Amino acid sequence: MTTHFQVLVVGGGNAGLSAAAQLLHKASSLQLGIIEPSAKHYYQPAWTLVGAGQFDIRDTEKDEQDYVPEGAEWIRDAVTAFQPEQNQVTCQSGATYTYDSLVVVPGIQLDWAKIKGFSETLGKNQVSSNYSFQTAPYTWELIRNFKGGVAVFTNPATPVKCGGAPHKIMYLACDYWRKNGVLDKTEVHYISGAGAIFAVKEFARTLEGLLKRYRIKTHFLQNVTEVDGPNHRIYFEGKDADGNVQKQSIQFDMAHITPPQSAPDFIKNSPLADPTQPLGWVEVNKFTFQHTRFSNVFACGDVSNAPTSKTGAAIRKQAPVMVDHILAQLHKTQSSARYDGYTACPIPTEYGKLMLAEFDYTNKPKMTFPFDQAVPRWTMWLLKKYMLPWLYWHRILTGKA
User: Fold this and answer.
1) Residue 177: which CATH number?
2) Catalytic site residue 162?
3) Has 91 been annotated as catalytic?
4) How many domains does the chain have?
5) pLDDT digits 0-9 by tens, 211-267
6) Which entry of 91, 162, 174, 300 is annotated as an active-site residue?
7) Of these residues, 91, 174, 300, 345, which one is catalytic?
């Protein structure tokens, strides 16, 4: 087995596979290895639709081996430590690998245990989360069988993958209940660590209209601390105007909870982590994805500290820039490629309609289509449900989009 690679990729998710495929398209003779422990690969953006009864969970799972690009060596192992001064990584098996360039793209870590009682009650006691392959179908079971009462949807104070996902499912649930005569018997609460429903004002206006339409009670700058599943109570806290911590709780009849998220622990505890950020993101130049202290290390996607939303759409724009800079370094040339912070968040507002929010580092809209994307449309719903999954499996992972 090879132990030295020109390019070593840590992570076989969206960023890892698409970047590896792009590298090999441009330089087919590269010695490239991918370290990834998982046998399965998931299309996670569809899990919101799974939770809303609009997508089969089985169609979101594929075999990892079918998407490892030709010419790459898949190392079925997990990295536990980085030695960037020696251009080396150590794996769970004890094996070590060296590299000329390192690509760090292991994705994000779901910190279920940061909410007391959450792990113990997840998937039962009317508590679900679309952030889990195992429990996304349970969300639909809860929504479909809900007969009224108190429904709670939460969003943590940390960044999360697909920042819109915690409230996407809320709008779909409300629309389903409205159509089935249940919404008038329902009190909906949204508890969020963010200060507003959305950061881009043009798209926020549409969502604020939805909050009124569905009579959703919002609790901003609040963080969920505990879920008591058997007694159906959620505890959360925030600070008042004087900075004092205020603790509250809500009794619920169903709850969809988004876990806090951070960089994986093996990243957090490594020399690659940004020392100024407690969540442990990899420290990179936000325009090029080159590490700011180790010049032959690169990282993009959810694990990087680039200040943009953590989405698959962002990765699609980040990966080609990063690939250009990796190849430039290997060939001892320069790249002028730069990433402007583009990201996209497809937000379903009701069954059959969706708002495609696209924006950059400055929170200015960057609309792809020749119409106002702040207006929800059925064409964008079709894009989300049918086109994007096909694009992911057939073009993005293969490095062709």
Assistant:
1) 3.50.50.60
2) yes
3) no
4) 2
5) 999 999 999 999 999 999 999 999 999 998 889 999 999 999 999 999 999 999 999
6) 162
7) 345
